[in-house]
Design brief:
five-stranded parallel sheet, four-stranded antiparallel sheet, elongated, 9 strands, alpha/beta
Length: 202
């Protein structure tokens, strides 16, 4: 290993010996491997992180989001900080707000949320982007387009499927199963969520 005044080489006992260049009259300096390791550790740079906020750990789709998120983040050199709210929207909002507050300490650059209730996430999404964090929903969110227009310099988006198309497929399945019977019970989940509205539209 080269250093500013000579070279750094390994000795037989596992320590490292620094020999000065011919222009230097300093005596050789011996460094232990522990000291070298500590110096290397001090130079390590903490990777940027991404906050991943999931609805639950008991849902197969949510577990898949975590699995893919961890894998892709590692591939691109990011650390992922994962939190789940167990379908409690107030807890999820609090988790996101805490992450925004601590973003400087955790070197967080982006927040990804699989929202429990998308209407409740609009204020914290504004707060995240205003704090210079990128923000993405892993489901629908009616407010995303407005925030993206307000902050054109930030990555603000929703990654989701064709909810209208899913609703249409559901209707076709019900029609095939029910035949001539016209009464069907439809369980939509949170009616305030834009996902439920779009599926009913389909």
């Amino acid at each position: 290993f080269l250093c500013h005044d000579g070279w750094l080489g390994a000795k037989d006992d596992g320590s490292f010996c620094s020999r000065p260049s011919t222009a230097s009259a300093n005596l050789p300096m011996v460094l232990s491997s522990k000291q070298v390791g500590q110096a290397s550790h001090q130079k390590e740079v903490m990777p940027a992180s991404i906050g991943l906020f999931l609805r639950s750990t008991e849902n197969a789709y949510q577990r898949r989001l975590k699995e893919v998120g961890l894998r892709e983040a590692k591939r691109h050199g990011f650390e992922v900080l994962v939190q789940t709210s167990q379908f409690d929207f107030s807890q999820q909002v609090a988790q996101v707000r805490d992450a925004i507050r601590d973003a400087a300490d955790t070197k967080m650059v982006a927040i990804l949320v699989s929202g429990v209730l998308d209407t409740e996430l609009a204020p914290v999404a504004h707060e995240a982007v205003a704090a210079s964090l990128d923000f993405a929903l892993l489901n629908e969110g009616a407010f995303i387009d407005d925030i993206r227009r307000q902050y054109p310099g930030r990555a603000v988006f929703a990654a989701t499927c064709d909810q209208v198309g899913i609703g249409r497929v559901h209707a076709q399945q019900v029609r095939a199963l029910a035949g001539r019977q016209r009464r069907v019970l439809c369980v939509t989940g949170q009616v305030g969520n834009v996902e439920a509205q779009l599926r009913m539209q389909g």
